[in-house]
Every structure is written in structure tokens, then in C-alpha cells.
Amino acid sequence: MNPLPVMFCMYKCLCIIGLANEGWFDPWLYLSALKIKCMSLGVKFTKGEVIGFDSEDKVCGSSTTAGAIQRRKELMAVKVNIRL
């Protein structure tokens, strides 16, 4: 089991359009509220410095019409020096 699971945000999106007099969006307030909600669900936050990433090459489906195989890197773990 990976002690540092990774949250993939590929399909998550926040979109704002303001045509006229729509108000404003405070991104710091949003991130603070998201952090508080995550902590209430049991997430533990630590401070540290990212020193590296572990990734694997993955094959995505079948080959394209040109015959090339599609590949992507999948993030497996993040190496962190935790500050105490």
C-alpha cells in the first residue's frame, strides 16, 4: 500500500464566466474551505519539500490509425522530505 496516495484531478474542472456584474470569485477562500472539509473527512496535512516523483509508462488503449501505440506516464508516488 502506498503511504502517499495520489489524487488525480484529470476530470475535475472549475469554470467561471462573468459577462457583466456577476460578482467575483475568491480562490484563496475556496482552497481554505476545501482544506477544512478535507480535514473534517480525516485527511492529514504535513509540510515538506518534494524531492522527486515515481512514475510508470502505461499503454493507453489500442494503436492509432497511423499504427503508433499511445503511451502516458502515470504518477505512482511523490517523494517528500517531511519537515517536523
Key terms for this structure?
84 residues; alpha+beta; two-stranded antiparallel sheet; 1 helix; disordered N terminus
**Averaged pLDDT:** 75
Helix-strand pattern: HEE
In oligomeric terms, what are we looking at?
Answer: single chain
C-alpha Rg (nearest Å): 19 Å
Instruction: Enumerate the spans where pLDDT stays under 50 for 5 or more consecutive residues.
Output: 1-5
Helix content: 10-25%
The number of helical elements comes to 1
Beta-strand percentage range: 35-45%
**Spatial separation of the terminal alpha carbons:** 24 Å
- Strand segment count: 2
User: Can you summarize the main beta sheet?
Assistant: 2 strands, antiparallel
Category from helices, strands and their pairing: alpha+beta
Q: Outline, from the CA principal axes?
A: flat
Instruction: Give the spatial strand order of the biggest sheet.
Output: 1-2
